[in-house]
Amino acid sequence: MSDIQITFQDLAIGAKNVKHITFVGQLDETNVDHEAKRVYQVITEMTEPVLLLDFSGLEYMNSKSIGYVTDWFTQATAKQGSVSIIGPKPNILDILKVVGITQIITVYNTLEEAKTALGSAAPAAPETPPAPVAPTPAAPVAPEVPAATPAPAPVPAPEAPVAPAATAPPAADTPQ
Per-residue pLDDT tens for 14-67? Predict the structure, then answer.
């Protein structure tokens, strides 16, 4: 069984309650299911879960653990929360890039960088509906005409079979 230590720390960043979750060791098939339950519990308990997954001490993670990270992101954002990753080692960052996690989850180099980014994020202003705008009539658009395709070259008609020339039977000598 691989060793993994996960610690949870509450942080107050601006007006946000943030959960800093630190992973140290190897997250693999021998421990990921049990440890994932602990993270799901945190997401369930928070009204608007903001998770900082600190991977700076993570040495290895398997594909199943990557699936859990993706699902934690989905669960947190469904509750208007967020998930960020902090300080992954180069081997872990490479894996996260290859599978596309870094396209949906922000990765910070340090906890301080994450705190600064989260602290400077202004709370979203309530949306006000845009002022009504009179519709502008659209200019008529000519229907799109498909590009002409060249006509196929004519195929010559098959030649009719030529019958052998008829030869007249030899004239019989007829007396005159």
Answer: 888 999 999 999 999 999 999 999 999 999 999 999 999 999 999 999 999 999
Amino acid at 28: D
SS3 readout for the chain: CCCEEEEEEEEEECCEEEEEEEEEEEECCCCHHHHHHHHHHHHHHCCCCEEEEEEEEEEEECHHHHHHHHHHHHHHHHCCCEEEEECCCHHHHHHHHHCCHHHCCEEECCHHHHHHHHHHCCCCCCCCCCCCCCCCCCCCCCCCCCCCCCCCCCCCCCCCCCCCCCCCCCCCCCCC
Distance, C-alpha 89 to centroid of its chain: 23
Domains of the chain as residue ranges with CATH: 4-119 (3.30.750.24)
Does the pTM surpass 0.85? The reply is: no
Task: Give the pLDDT score at 15.
Answer: 85
Structure tokens at 124: 């979203």
